[in-house]
């Protein structure tokens, strides 16, 4: 018995890999903290599904997926990324929520000349001042969120704002981008308070927002922070007293955690919703079946679509080198059932439609995960920051 | 309206009250820790996980069995306390002869395991738990809108804190307990079952954590990390108050809640560290804590 296993191992070792191309991709995200439900294990599942749907094995491509928890800390993220590139031979890193961690991985990837396709993080600096020839930003960014939700709120006459901002790269970026939208539309920012990340009790900040008299309280935070802030705003009678909340980044997992009773009526911007069309429904139902019944977030969808596009580029170039693969990804239009047709711009920004959703009231919902009604579609051409305004030196 | 340091007085009163509300959680949690440390000499790092369990068990009672908040207030401390008793009997009691460090490591490990199990089962986004209908709505105090539920939290916390203090410092049972920690052999010789007394004390401390968890469930998101975020702060509160001092834990709990609340007005970015800065200063000036006695 032992000898036969040994012999088999020898044969395998001598033959090397049975495939023409070996690819190793790393899913680096939050697997235990406040962003674990919207990214976490679900992103690994999404990547696996992409590999299966692409039919990698039939195309003589062997894909190995590894995953790790960066705990939302930039130092942990860059250490893992470095180790993956240097010792594990990882060719590309996907997902990476938490902007500060994403910016760290962005730097390491540039230095090691590999590929980084971000789905989970928000900071638009990834394709702006910090843009890199090795990075693609797939799912959404702070500029697109501000443009979607900010514009929609200002159009309803909500022209005075107070920001409640998570005190790190993402919160600052989201606040800056939204303030720009508000001011461009003739609105006014009355004040800002920056809370430690992650937070627990927001009542103190909410009271400051209330006494500012602003018509809108802009929540420039995410995940559990947004959930707690919305819950407490309703508890302290802030929404009932006439001020409205703008959840500038909200995922479907957050709405699920809040419950429709508290979340109803909120306006939010996302690039994906499972019940959008036939393609998204079909994929999401397959995803949910393997994810304990929970529907995918837009971050999961982004990981799926980006892995798919990455594998197509590998197939067409027959290479895993960063240079040719990045070039192929930028020159080939993207096409997948979740985001439709799109492109990767020269600065690394992935372009697709964004959607403005309104959260349904409990009596409009058919059951769990039936949460959004589509307000309107923001067409791809207007959804993201124009190429010449980001300050990216790749397009100067 | 007059102003204090550029902040309208009304806003400042509101913030003081909010600080008091947060302080009630600090006080309740640090009280349990102080009871366990003062009487058992165990540094109970699982306290945050037990607080989280309190919130989760309340949620389970409501969602699976339809048992409401008021019953949960009574049942949850009993259920989680009983869990604590099993842990004490099967595991912690083996460590009384050893250095404190072993108890700390054991309970820290338990906390990670418990949190991991809940995370695996329920995810991290949190579960909704509504405020009981009797306590919904709020009262306009003129300077702020006080949700009735938050008022109830302060009241309940004060009653439990001072009740516990009275029980331990002023009753015969409390006297037995304190004597049993001073000299267990002597107290045992008087016919008192010391190990049982100690086990019940641990169960009581855990029950206090669970009670805080039930009180927190309607206002914070019920999620597996809720205790981990809080426990470090609560330890700092206990250290500032003086390890093992019951009254110290209560007063510093409320006091630091207020100081933290004020930091959120004047310099919100520092609100996560202000308690640790105070801890460092107190340790330098009075290493036994504000209310601790040198041993």
Task: Give a description of the structure.
The complex is a heterodimer of chains A (396) and B (295). Chain A has helices at residues 2-15, 40-54, 74-88, 99-112, 142-155, 169-184, 203-212, 223-235, 252-258, 260-263, 278-289, 298-317, 322-331, 380-383; strands spanning 21-29, 61-69, 92-95, 115-118, 135-137, 160-166, 188-195, 216-220, 244-247, 267-270, 334-336, 340-344, 350-351, 354-359, 372-378. With 396 residues, chain A is of the alpha/beta class. Chain A folds into 2 domains: 21-140 and 277-351, Response regulator (Rossmann fold); 143-273 and 354-383, Response regulator (Rossmann fold, 3-Layer(aba) Sandwich). In chain A, the strands form 4 sheets. A 5-stranded parallel β-sheet of chain A has the order 2-1-3-4-5, sandwiched between helices. A 4-stranded parallel β-sheet of chain A has the order 7-6-8-9, with helices on both faces. In chain A, strands 10-14-15 form a 3-stranded antiparallel β-sheet. In chain A, helix 2 links the parallel strand 1 (21-29) and strand 2 (61-69). Chain A is globular. With 295 residues, chain B is mostly helical. Chain B is 71% helix and 3% strand. In chain B, helix 9 packs parallel to helix 11 (274-285). In chain B, the strands form 2 sheets. A two-stranded antiparallel sheet of chain B has the order 1-2. A two-stranded antiparallel ribbon of chain B has the order 3-4. Chain B has one domain (3-129, 141-285): ABC transporter involved in vitamin B12 uptake, BtuC (Orthogonal Bundle), CATH 1.10.3470. Chain B contains 11 helices and 4 strands; from the N terminus they run ββααααββααααααα. Chain A binds chain B through residues 32-34, 36-38, 40, 167, 193-196, 198, 200-201, 203-205, 207-208, 211, 223-224, 227-228, 231-232, 235-237, 241, 253-254, 256-259, 261-262, 294, and chain B through 8, 10-11, 14-15, 18-19, 21-22, 119, 123-128, 130-131, 138, 144-145, 147, 149-150, 219-221, 223, 225-226, 229-230, 261, 264-265, 268-269, 271-272. Chain A: It comes from Pelagibacterium lacus. Chain A: Belongs to the leucine-binding protein family. Chain A: InterPro entries: BCAA_transport, Leu-bd, Peripla_BP_I. Chain A: This is ABC transporter permease.
